[in-house]
Design brief:
With 396 residues, the chain is mainly α. The chain has 16 helices and no strands. It starts with 21 loop residues before the first helix and ends in a 14-residue tail after the last helix.
Length: 396
């Protein structure tokens, strides 16, 4: 697409959501706030605030292991693949994005381990993991988890109505401060968890089904539209230019619209789905729940598999075209590997997704339990004896 030029199918609003990844970070942040706060908020409303605090303390400690150990395993796999040349085809692919994001093997045996150690450290320092660049988000998502636990710690004894008011204030504060990547999405998730268990809100929605249906459907449509906002050159299409103009009215000065719009879209989608019985029924289907359980493994392994398995299929069978000779008559090196024929792409991409989710399912069955056991072993090692076994709760 060019300025004022025609758009392809996946450059149109709504369809863009199928191939864009920025909204996924906002969804992870929102789900972080929702899932991590739902249990403690239920206990607080049931009068078990002390039990809620105990759960928050254990969960906050456990979160580091549940984030870091799977990330280390994923990095190790990508590091081994890199050192054995699995990314060589990616370095020659006629795709700047694939070439630039594929790691290069180390020059020495000792240097390989040094590069591995550096990437493991930089993942949590500045997001600079050379072997799995997608892990730059993990430090932000871990920050979102800690933000959730700290908020719950401060508000667990607060009355529900006041707690909701404070959460709205925190959402607006994060909005105004420009924390679009994690901040206001986390607080939206906590607020949705609070609202979902508030009997007055649930009863009001049930008593006004027409308002509920119209409002929730509108939020879902708006959510997909906001998530469609392009990362670059919004001025090239009329619909995105209108969104850019609207963003100047509602976003704080200096805001990154390509972060704010997906975040706002994720929040609108989640709110609309929560109050839409039909949407909840559809998303509760066994197959979709299975895909949801695989979201974390898919996130960890999709980038290395894309730059190896999918790249091998789409570029590996191609022939590098000759580049001719330079002005001095010297033969130039061959060009980059072109993309495979359209029919190959049409079959390869869907099959890759089947392979990806199968690999993620194996991760969930074998790798994830091992990571959980490793986290539990470390917890048993460092926790006091009276804290290793949770006390029975009066209400749960």
């Amino acid at each position: 697409m060019s300025d004022r030029g025609p758009s392809t199918l996946f450059q149109l609003p709504f369809f863009r959501c199928l191939v864009m990844g920025r909204a996924s970070v906002a969804v992870f942040a929102l789900v972080t706030g929702y899932i991590n706060s739902l249990g403690p908020l239920k206990k607080s409303r049931a009068g078990n605030a002390d039990a809620a605090l105990t759960g928050i303390a254990r969960s906050a400690f456990r979160r580091f292991g549940r984030f870091m150990i799977p990330a280390i395993v994923a990095t190790l796999i990508s590091w081994l693949a890199c050192q054995f040349g699995a990314y060589n085809i990616a370095h020659l692919a006629d795709s700047a994005w694939i070439r630039d994001s594929s790691p290069i093997p180390s020059t020495t045996f000792a240097g390989a381990f040094y590069d591995l150690f550096t990437s493991l450290i930089k993942t949590w320092v500045d997001g600079g993991n050379e072997y799995d660049k997608i892990q730059w988000t993990l430090t932000y998502l871990l920050k979102g988890s800690m933000m959730t636990y700290l908020t719950l710690f401060a508000l667990i004894y607060v009355k529900p109505r006041w707690r909701m008011l404070i959460l709205v204030g925190m959402f607006l504060f994060k909005w105004r401060s420009g924390d679009a990547l994690v901040g206001f999405n986390v607080y939206c998730g906590i607020l949705l968890a609070e609202v979902s268990i508030d009997s007055d809100v649930v009863d009001f929605a049930s008593a006004h089904p027409y308002i509920q249906a119209v409002t929730s459907a509108s939020l879902i449509i708006l959510g997909f539209l906001f998530c469609s906002y392009p990362e670059e050159h919004p001025e090239w299409a009329r619909w995105s230019r209108k969104m850019e103009d609207f963003g100047r009215l509602i976003f704080p000065e200096g805001a990154e619209y390509a972060r704010f719009y997906p975040g706002m879209g994720a929040d609108a989608l989640a709110t609309g789905i929560m109050f839409n019985p039909t949407a909840k029924t559809i998303l509760s289907h066994r197959f979709l729940c299975w895909m949801g359980r695989l979201s974390w493994p898919v996130y960890l392994i999709h980038a290395p598999l894309l730059r190896t398995v999918l790249t091998w299929v789409l570029f590996g069978a191609s022939v590098r075209p000759p580049q001719g000779k330079d002005d001095q008559g010297n033969q130039l090196p061959p060009g980059l590997l072109p993309l495979a024929k359209p029919w190959v792409v049409m079959f390869a991409v869907p099959l890759f997704y089947v392979f990806l989710y199968r690999a993620a399912d194996l991760w969930l069955r074998y790798v994830d339990p091992w990571c959980g056991r490793a986290t539990q072993l470390f917890e048993d090692l460092v926790f006091r004896d009276d804290a290793k076994v949770e006390k029975p709760l009066l209400l749960s």
